[in-house]
Amino acid sequence: MNIVAIMASYRKGRTIDTLVDRAIAGTLAANPGATTEKITLIDKHIEYCRNCMACRDDDPSKPLARCVIQDDMQAIYPVLDAADAYIIGTPINMGNETALFKTFVERCCFVFAKPGTFPMKGVPTPRGTRKRRAVAILSTGVVPPWMRLLCDDATPLIKDFCKTMLNARLLDTLYAGAIEKRTVDYYTQAAFQLGRELVR
User: Fold this and answer.
1) What class has domain 2-199?
2) Tens digits of per-residue pLDDT, 52-90?
C-alpha cells in the first residue's frame, strides 16, 4: 500500500506536522509493508493557478492532464497519482484551510479531474477509476471541538478534493481543537489511530 501525506501547515515541527507524523506511524504499525511519502507544501515552490484552462481542455482520456506551469507540482502530480491512500493535514485559519492547501488544491483540480455532467455540465469528476481512501487532520489554536460546526469550512473542501479529483473516500477526520490549551500531546494517540484506520 502506497500512502502519501500532505502537510499544509506554514510551520514545521508544530501541531499539524506532529499529528501527520503520528498518523503515518499508525499506518506503518497497522501495515508494516506500506510505503509512505510526506509532502511538506511549505518546502515546495507552488505557483498560483492561472485559470488558463489548459488542464481542463486537455484530452479527457489521459490519466493526468497537462499543467503549463513548470514548478514543483510537476513532480508532485505523479506521486499523488501513484498513491492508494492519503493523509491530509491543515490548520484551520479563520475557519478555513491554509492558503497553501487551497493553492495546492486549485493546481490539482483539472489535472486529476475532467469536466463531468453531474450535477451540472463542466463540474470536475475524476479522470481515474481506481478507488482510494483518505483521512484528514485539522487543528485550531483556541476553538474547541464542540464548536467545529461554526469553525470548519476546510473539511467540505477536503472531502470534495478527495471525491472529485483523487477518487478517494474521506474515511474519517481528526479535529484537534483548542491546541493552545490542550497541547498537541492530547491528540497524538487519536492521530495514530486515524492512521491505523486508513490502512485497515
Assistant:
1) alpha beta
2) 999 999 999 999 999 999 999 999 999 999 999 999 999
